Amino acid sequence: MPNMSLKKNEMPVQQANVRNKNFSEVALGYTEEQALDEAERCLNCKNMPCRSGCPVSIDIPAFIAKVREKDYEGAYEIIAESSSLPAVCGRVCPQETQCESKCVRGIKGEPVGIGRLERFVADWHNAHSTEPPKAPAKNGHKCAVIGAGPSGLTCAGDLAKMGYDVTVFEALHLAGGVLVYGIPEFRLPKSIVQREVDNLKALGVKVETNVVIGRTISIDELFEQGYEAIFIGSGAGLPRFMNIPGENLKGVYSANEFLTRVNLMKAYKENSDTPIKKNTNVAVVGGGNVAMDAARCAKRLGAENVYIVYRRGEEEMPARNEEIEHAKEEGIIFKTLNNPVEILGNEHKFVTGMKCVEMELGEPDQSGRRRPIEKPDSEFVLDVDCVVMSIGTSPNPLIRNTTAGLETNRHGCFVADENGATSLKGVFAGGDAVTGAATVILAMGAGKTAAKAMDEYIKSKQM
Ligand SMILES: Cc1cc2nc3c(=O)[nH]c(=O)nc-3n(C[C@H](O)[C@H](O)[C@H](O)COP(=O)(O)OP(=O)(O)OC[C@H]3O[C@@H](n4cnc5c(N)ncnc54)[C@H](O)[C@@H]3O)c2cc1C
């Protein structure tokens, strides 16, 4: 008999007033007992609606059935057929809008905790399997991958498994993309990403860090060096600003810069000498996951008051509900229906406050969300000395500007067909560089699709 409880097994978490002072993982993961109990909630539906909600079509009922049998390695193998980063996706995928949104148990209660079970299985595998994967025999062909984020790493892994000699070129000094420079340690421990990168290296993938394509070497030069197909997975790391007065004052960061200093440059470690503003009053402008991450990092760095300043209401916030709840529990102050109009500074050009106006919601705009309209005579000053702008990103134009014939759209994203093929022969692209800022699982899916297309492209040249 399935477990007909209407509620998911709760995820054990660190207490809010403890965790908001440390960078250890917030969610602690299911115990075996909880995982088995949760797996019993799955009805094993014949038509598998959950699977249709997964961007990489993991056979969810089959892996949950393996959990029920306590065959955790079997469950892992099923997930790994479709996903190359299960321990990452089990932690950061927005399951509530994907697989879990289709689960029939969600009609009269909470859906099965598919993401939590995925994390349990992946962590079990990582704790019990010590053997690195074996490198397959080489097929004599070379491919290059630009960017070591989830799209590039997935593409590289799949190509290596097909026997290609793959080199990943990464601009930063560490592989992982947003997984290492953006998503904080307390949501995704970096050791998990490092393990995935180590596994890729065991498969024979070469990772060259500190190489900026378009500066250190161009795409044309990569072809001259004998790479037969190239995948661009360079992400969307160029921050947007509001273009209001005061944005160039000291103490104003883009969310990417702030998070890179905290995560990649380890400002969160006590003895770190990475420059960053600590123990301040911080305003984070924006309402997405990135804004929540920045606010929660600022709190952990010792800020007294951390504000989320968002021009719409909480219902319109694009961040995951779980992230909003966690941020609130940790003491982040939400100032919704507020919009900054100027950042104020002193004679030394340090931030001293942020002038805001109150907003109200009008008719829905093109995005379907109600348009925020400024309330007359509602100006006020928020007492902050640090401002983090988190209002979106777009792809960096460097590769586009240094590669003739590579088509981009008006948002600066590479134009690619459903297989990832771009306007240049032999050049494929995927992930945020094509879609604009999206999700880890979509980036991984794009890397997978492109690897297959690159293989077909190289084989077609030999005929
Ligand atoms: C703070 C933050 C939190 C997020 N939280 C979530 C979440 O909880 N769940 C979720 O699903 N998604 C989340 N996302 C989105 C998700 O991380 C991205 O959609 C995903 O990482 C995109 O993968 P990618 O491989 O396309 O690009 P990226 O991860 O951006 O990787 C691109 C890589 O390319 C490198 N690169 C760029 N230009 C060059 C060049 N010219 N030469 C060489 N290398 C280059 C970059 O340094 C980077 O390492 C978050 C994003 C951010 C910023």
CATH class of the largest domain reads Alpha Beta
Mean pLDDT across the residues is 94
- The neighbouring-strand order within the major sheet is 3-2-1-4-16
Named at the architecture level, the CATH assignment of the largest domain is 3-Layer(bba) Sandwich
DSSP E strands, number? 16
Can you tell me the overall shape?
Answer: globular
Number of domains: 3
Helix amount: 25-40%
What is the makeup of the main sheet? 5 strands, parallel
Q: Output the CATH topology of the largest domain.
A: FAD/NAD(P)-binding domain
Strand content: 15-25%
List the bound ligands: flavin-adenine dinucleotide
Helical stretch tally: 17
> End-to-end span in angstroms?
56 Å
Say what oligomer this is.
single chain
Please explain how this structure is put together:
By secondary structure, the chain is of the alpha/beta class. It folds into three domains: 16-128, Fumarate Reductase Iron-sulfur Protein, Chain B, domain 2, CATH 1.10.1060; 142-236 and 395-462, FAD/NAD(P)-binding domain, CATH 3.50.50.60; 241-391, FAD/NAD(P)-binding domain. It has 17 helices and 16 strands. The chain has helices at residues 16-19, 32-39, 49-52, 60-68, 72-82, 86-92, 114-128, 150-161, 178-181, 190-202, 219-224, 255-262, 289-300, 321-329, 398-401, 432-435, 440-462; strands at 142-146, 165-169, 206-208, 229-232, 238-239, 252-254, 281-285, 305-310, 333-336, 338-345, 351-364, 370-374, 380-382, 386-389, 393-394, 427-429. The chain is globular. The chain binds flavin-adenine dinucleotide (FAD). The site of flavin-adenine dinucleotide has 41 residues, from helix 8, helix 13, helix 15, helix 16 and helix 17.
